[in-house]
Fold Phosphate regulon sensor protein PhoR.
Amino acid sequence: YRATVLLLDQTGGADRQYLLSFRDLTEAHRLERMRSDFVANASHELRTPLASLSGFIETLRGPARNDEAARDNFLEIMQKQAERMARLIDDLLSLSRIEMKAHIAVKDQVDLTTVLNHVADSMRPLAAGLDVVIEQDIDPGPIKVLGDRDELTQVFQNLVENACKYGQSGKRIIIDLKQNSEGVRATVQDFGPGIPDEHIPRLTERFYRVNVETSRAQKGTGLGLAIVKHILTRHRARLIVRSRVGEGSSFTVVFGPQRT
Ligand code: ADP
């Protein structure tokens, strides 16, 4: 705690008055700590592909100067590393844009049937490339929630992308949207390897990945679900994650009853 003492009455005399105020610094310290951890993690994540790029440049200018086969191979790896850095930067910028808007209330009526149908259509090429079929079980709309259309699109794009990436090829995923008197629920379900229980509470932490190798291979940055969490907080919506190892996972976004 930090205690601040203010002298209220400076006229002297016997009855001086003091105002004593305490402020809880643990929360402030925690936030500060989170911020500096984040900067350290982000720098590390960007440094890794950069170090690899520098290494390859050095090799190409030196030992591999005249080795054509090695050059093609190295250039391909370098391109992938550069793309990885670009993805990281895009995700970091996304996160910072969303954070800047965190205190501005969402105000548009967004029809989720349109958003989800649009996301399903736009993700089909990626799904097909991973040999995953997207199925839709979407109530006929409109199903409106108060929100920001672009941000909600990003939420469902991230969830569907994860379901496709981690849901295993040759399988299907289901996008489900339902409305009842308690509110609106949108679920993205996959039948992939599932997520062990101990990881679930940490999934929305920045840079948290259950399996770093798989995630890297799937072009993951570890920021997707952190972005989802930030957007949903601004929308006062909840994310419910259910998963069973060997059976699959479902990510449900729950919006409370909507005022119309
Ligand atoms: P990434 O960019 O690595 O995909 P996310 O923040 O979107 O990062 O997800 C964090 C981690 O959660 C992923 O790296 C992956 O290990 C795990 N994960 C997310 N969605 C699923 C899913 N549907 N099935 C299994 N694991 C998942």
Q: What stands out?
A: The first strand starts at residue 2 and ends at 7. Strands lie at 2-7, 18-23, 108-111, 133-138, 144-147, 172-180, 183-190, 238-244, 248-255.
